[in-house]
Amino acid sequence: MADRFDPPQVLDRLAAELLVVRCSGHLADPQRRYPRWELDNAALQRLLQRGVGGVILLGGCAAELRQRTRQLEAWAGAPLLLCADVEEGVGQRFEGASWLVPPLALARIHAEDPALAIDLARRYGACTGREARQLGLNWVLAPVCDVNNNPANPVINVRAWGEDPATAGALAAAFCRGVQAEGVLACAKHFPGHGDTASDSHLELPLIPHGRERLEAVELPPFREAIATGVAAVMTAHLLLPAIDADHPATLSRAVLTGLLRQQLGFEGLIVTDALVMEAIAGRYGPSEAAVLALEAGADLVLMPEDADGAIEAIVAAVASGRLSLEQLRASQQRRRRALERCSADGGDSAPAPLGALSNGPAPPDQALALELVRRSLVSRGRGPVPGGPGVNLIRLDNSLACPFLPAGAPALALPAAAGWRTCLIDGQGPSPWSGDGEAPLVLERLGDGPVLLQLFVRGNPFRGRADGADPWPAVIRQLQAAGRLAGLAVYGSPYAWETLAALLDPRVPAAWSPGQMALAQGELLGRLGFGPQGGATPDDDAPRAALAVDFTD
Amino acid sequence: MADRFDPPQVLDRLAAELLVVRCSGHLADPQRRYPRWELDNAALQRLLQRGVGGVILLGGCAAELRQRTRQLEAWAGAPLLLCADVEEGVGQRFEGASWLVPPLALARIHAEDPALAIDLARRYGACTGREARQLGLNWVLAPVCDVNNNPANPVINVRAWGEDPATAGALAAAFCRGVQAEGVLACAKHFPGHGDTASDSHLELPLIPHGRERLEAVELPPFREAIATGVAAVMTAHLLLPAIDADHPATLSRAVLTGLLRQQLGFEGLIVTDALVMEAIAGRYGPSEAAVLALEAGADLVLMPEDADGAIEAIVAAVASGRLSLEQLRASQQRRRRALERCSADGGDSAPAPLGALSNGPAPPDQALALELVRRSLVSRGRGPVPGGPGVNLIRLDNSLACPFLPAGAPALALPAAAGWRTCLIDGQGPSPWSGDGEAPLVLERLGDGPVLLQLFVRGNPFRGRADGADPWPAVIRQLQAAGRLAGLAVYGSPYAWETLAALLDPRVPAAWSPGQMALAQGELLGRLGFGPQGGATPDDDAPRAALAVDFTD
């Protein structure tokens, strides 16, 4: 039953308060990269005035984000949950802040020195929480609590804090403490555990065949640890777990959210869905029905409903028809408001940051942390510097047009260029380099002459050549070695790719791996392979002139 | 002679005031794209405190630039000249502001309707001046007054306001009036005229063989018009004009700067050099000597000296040795100060803009101007929509890693993708698509099957295939037509490229040209070729899913 006074508007606002909509971190509409998913400013302003209670932001630099969060608060006129997927430091998503190595790097450190890794994870969280707050965010959608026990996992992989439950739990909990000590909320995800899937819930609904016993042994412990340490929120997974609920994915399952998470694990904080627009949900349920089902199942907040207005109306109708109780929605509202109060009550400097926050980049201790993490997680092998050269700097990446780690001047480009190496990018969007021959997949004459420095930016499951769909890189390593042309190997990202490829290397080939892909990791890694620091170019090299010509057209 | 009181410091500050140094528009040091050319914040702050009087900025978005200019003013503690190469709207360099079609587009309009073109040029200037001021800039390094009478010019080309002196002069002067009515300084460049060169002064020193009579007929009129309309500054060219000065390039020539510009053309405003780091100067003179030579020749301000401290010291020493007179430096100082006063005295709203300027992008009239310019300058031919398909969306661009006009979701990518076309990028940094056969330059099987939509982003003189150095695109057009695979042609940028290629087309092939390369131009042009508006993707296409996967990794 609705309130006695003005019930339609009150209920409408209550429903709206439980939604988290998405917008770009860029200020202006034309700057949006994904207008299909990112509300325009008119719609955003209208929804915030309708009472929508949270916004997830993506895109833009730190300075822009700081203005953006202030703008959103002004439009809402009430405290908002402002969140972002900043799992690897705020700089992962917003240029100008700290970009840290992915969490799995710390799991590797944990194997050697658990106390050090736990302290690093806490500092990692503190850095992320502090910078988030400085830019106006109050909710970090991390840590990933999934145990990455399946190296083929296309969507979790290096985002996890461990490959075993104890490591993942200890580090994720330390990260939570770091974030929340800064007065920012953390979010353990993706409940009840997304680590053991080989399919991608962005595209389809993965199935987890495990029973309760196995969940208790592997998937649940990190969530238990995060909850024990006081994590403010838990995000649900778009997974089917037939042993618990044969009919509904976890996000929409009362057995999972209310039964398992709320009652059995005793979690009293905010339960938020993963993005409802994702194909595993959006493809199966109506855009508004999914929001109602999630709340029915026990979620407090609905992330990225496909149609926010439709979701509000469906929730209102579900209350009217008795599918949802007003008491339940009010309880969710109370959890949301308690979480917001916690942001200002918890430690840290709770005063709003000035617009000039981070205006000279990360603070020195955070810069030091970023460098320490890169150095401690870097692995190299082989003897001395890359021999021969100049030759071909062959770089594999996902998409050269949207590649935040390879701006002009990035070390992976600039250091080899300064030594005379020619860049050749392979990203599946250029002319094919593939022969169709699985044993000699590259057509070498399409790349140019000379030794090859192979730099692979790989995370998740990107091990597919365009020609045949199979992983071409082990064969490429063998092919280049057989031709006497492999001068060096750099792998940025996946430890599994590194381990597979390093095992194939001639021991004389210098090679290194960094879990990080950002400029800092590139510079450190290439330093190990004998490429000088930036600026060490010889006076007659072409690279700076080319940069100047691109850059300075007057 | 120096002052009686504390002469060394006074002279040091006077010398410093005449320099314009370069920094990134990004706030934080690690965000710099060209650290070799862009001062770090510590050096910048120190130089501003030493008295450096101007800064040229490049890079960063509008929101970041607004903070950056405020930061620089705070460091300097005195009024600064803050400038940028925003020749084609502030959005050309700083995302979030207006990005307009290049000036040569208006020259084409001028041929049909001079009054309309002149009014558009004035509005173009007003838009640029207003947005510059809103972001804290007070000096627009435009208009280009060079007459682009040489289609092979690699460096001016579409940046010019005309291919004949009358058009260039009328439009450049109208642009100046628009900029300066907003309380922002304009800058006519590159004196005495850079239009008739086929070499690039970024790389070498071009030679202009013309005598005075020809200069009066072609090169000088646009500068005379800009001066007559009150342009605040003139920038020098790095060109050798043996008929005037056989020994020194214009930038360092007393005959050109003092004789021709100051005395004969009667220009009383600021004379600023082009960037002294450019190879035509940097490669020939010592880094500090060039600054002294420029001032000796009659320049008031020195742009981007290779070593600002060295330049200050060299200027101080030149005064001590009598090479430079203190009176001359003081006259330059006065011109600089008068220009700064003019910024606040001239029309427009002279109050400093708030940090949230442009926070919802360009104002509606400026958006309308940008669209009007795109529509009026768009040329299309052939019949109806692109037939066949889906096939290969073959895109030629300079550098996929630094391509501001092709972010994720750019129409040139998204519209064909939504209709099922596969993107294939050719930028000289991927595996070679070239056969080495001049008559059939592309190896078609490296691109994939089906009809080809050819989209060329070309400006200046980029008509070089990697394989042979000759212009491959006319042969590519013939090759694709012979194979029955040319479905459509889009040219963004150079009218010369368009005219050359359009002449080769089968009249049935739909084709279009826009002088602009930005998203707005892409959408309008592809609309003419039958590709629907963004968001018109069929529900089962792959593009939005792929975008989601890239974008939304949780």
From TrEMBL, chains A, B:
Residue stretches making up the Bacterial Glycosyl hydrolase family 3 C-terminal domain: 392-528
Protein keywords: Glycosidase, Hydrolase
A GO term, aspect molecular function: hydrolase activity
Hydrolase in keyword set: yes
One of the Pfam families matching this protein, by short name: Bac_GH3_C
InterPro entries (alphabetical): Bac_GH3_C, GH, Glyco_hydro_3_N, Glyco_hydro_3_N_sf, NagZ_Beta-hexosaminidase
Protein's UniProt keywords contain Hydrolase: yes
Region (Disordered): 340-361
Domain Glycoside hydrolase family 3 N-terminal: 38-335
Transmembrane segments: none
Reactions mediated catalytically: Hydrolysis of terminal non-reducing N-acetyl-D-hexosamine residues in N-acetyl-beta-D-hexosaminides
Highest taxon in the source lineage: Bacteria
UniProt EC number: 3.2.1.52
Similarity annotation: Belongs to the glycosyl hydrolase 3 family.
Listed name of the protein: beta-N-acetylhexosaminidase
